[in-house]
Design a protein that fits this description.
Radius of gyration: 12 Å
Number of strands: 2
Order of helices and strands: EHHEH
Number of domains: 1
Largest sheet: 2 strands, parallel
Strand order of the largest sheet: 1-2
Strand content: 5-15%
Distance between the termini: 28 Å
Structural class: mainly alpha
Length: about 60
């Protein structure tokens, strides 16, 4: 995953669609669903309630 060269302020991910995009990108790169939060918090501040909702939805989709 991308690592910034300089220490910049982290962007906030609070919207469901933004978190969903980030989750889909990371899953597309082969990151296991259980490791998504660890990877995302390296670069972003995450709204945990929204993140949990997105991950719950992704797990339901994966079961089909």
């Amino acid at each position: 995953m991308y690592q910034p060269l300089e220490d910049h302020a982290k962007r906030r991910l609070t919207e469901s669609r933004d978190i969903t995009v980030a989750v889909n990108i990371l899953m597309g790169e082969g990151i296991p669903i259980d490791d998504l939060l660890d990877e995302m918090t390296k670069l972003f501040y995450i709204d945990l309630d929204t993140f949990n909702e997105v991950v719950r939805n992704e797990r339901q989709i994966m079961q089909f």
